[in-house]
Amino acid sequence: MSTLKYLSGFGSEFSSEDPRCPNSLPKGQNSPQKCPYGLYAEQLSGSAFTAPRCENRRSWLYRIRPSVGHKPFSPFPGVNVTHNWTETEPDPNQMRWNPFDLPKPGENVDFVSGLNTVAGAGDPKTKQGLAIHIYSANKSMKDRCLYNSDGDFLIVPQTGILKITTEFGKMQVAPNEICVIQQGMRFSVEIEEPSRGYILEVFGQHFTLPDLGPIGANGLANPRDFLTPVACYEDRNVAKYEVVAKYQGKLFVCEQDHSPFDVVAWHGNYVPYKYDLARFNVINSVSFDHCDPSIFTVLTCQSEKKGTAIADFVIFPPRWSVQEHTFRPPYYHRNCMSEFMGLIFGEYEAKRGSFRPGGATLHSIMTPHGPDFNCFEAASVEVLKPARVADGTQAFMFESCLGLAVTKWGAKTCQKLDPEYYQCWQGLKSHFTGPK
Ligand SMILES: [Fe+2]
């Protein structure tokens, strides 16, 4: 059980001091001529200076040395991170990936070198789009951190606990929890076993909580369940500390002579955070028919078009299913959005057995999808008593208004794409009774 402490809230104005240095936050101003304890003041801006107040995000960090004290960057080789969306031909087929590989024993792969881009769209230079990555690692990052100039990472561990050190403090993120590390925040990941998961990266906008409309002031993911680390600094000189930057779709590395996690105190509303998916307050139909899966949205990253997401993070959590005279599994569907799904554990209700934890599916724009033959036949005749759905299961979806391209790694290199996926719908037969 982790003993880490956290601050609770979403988008709040937080402040934190490492208890070893009381009163390390300057009083009444951000940038005094001399900061307490001889610290440097550094602002991290997560929005334009002039963004409306409700969207304005920034934090002030009080650190032993400013971030700028590093040597020049050079390319970081050997990683399958890309935003080249034309390296494979467009493919409208339904896609299903078997579980992505963990590193083999003897390979030494950390969180950074184990990043692989599977799909995406758009461009961080113009600040619109997203990328979906799979991480797969079997060793901790040692004297190495990562930051992302391009956008925010929403990290979904599937197997293995992530012990994440950030400039704001430490957080531990287990499967069935997620974390968001926003643009520019340096972090390092330790693991204790081979670990794998999914990353949704968004460019240009930050994740927000979805509006609740008639649901009211409470429900879905509640703000107080989002947890932000507390200040925890290390004053550590290192012969060669590597700072890896994701910049315009590529990784670069530079060296410095000290740990970047030397922030003694900080305040602001631009922070990393984690969330336990078990805290999600599920809202759904208690009469008949389905609410659309938007009812399961945990976090959203909105586009300029009202109500339309660059990416929604949606989960399908354990819940009761009580609808009367209703086909209860997900409906057959063609969508103007792209739907990338993953499975953390258990069995997704619409496709038992074939969609496995650590794997994925992609149903692209207007590509038909829905329950497989077995699911349809069973659900069409089941007795409609109140029933538990998805116990022991956590499936999720990254849904985007953009058309996603699959990378060469996703289509070929990973060797996990299942060419037989289409077969699961081939048995669907006509039940048409004909005109009376
Ligand atoms: Fe769908």
From TrEMBL:
It comes from the Eukaryota. Pathway: Amino-acid degradation; L-phenylalanine degradation; acetoacetate and fumarate from L-phenylalanine: step 4/6. Its cofactor is Fe cation. The active site is at H290 (proton acceptor). It is an enzyme of class 1 (oxidoreductase). Fe cation binds at H333, E339, H369. CDD domains: cupin_HGO_N. Residues 5-277 form the Homogentisate 1,2-dioxygenase N-terminal domain. InterPro entries: HgmA_C, HgmA_N, Homogentis_dOase, RmlC-like_jellyroll, RmlC_Cupin_sf. Residues 279-432 form the Homogentisate 1,2-dioxygenase C-terminal domain. GO terms for molecular function: homogentisate 1,2-dioxygenase activity; metal ion binding. Pfam families: HgmA_C, HgmA_N. Keywords: Dioxygenase, Iron, Metal-binding, Oxidoreductase, Phenylalanine catabolism, Tyrosine catabolism. Its EC number is 1.13.11.5. Residues 1-32 are annotated as: Disordered. Homogentisate binds at Y348, H369. GO terms for biological process: L-phenylalanine catabolic process; L-tyrosine catabolic process. It catalyses: homogentisate + O2 = 4-maleylacetoacetate + H(+). Belongs to the homogentisate dioxygenase family. This is Homogentisate 1,2-dioxygenase.
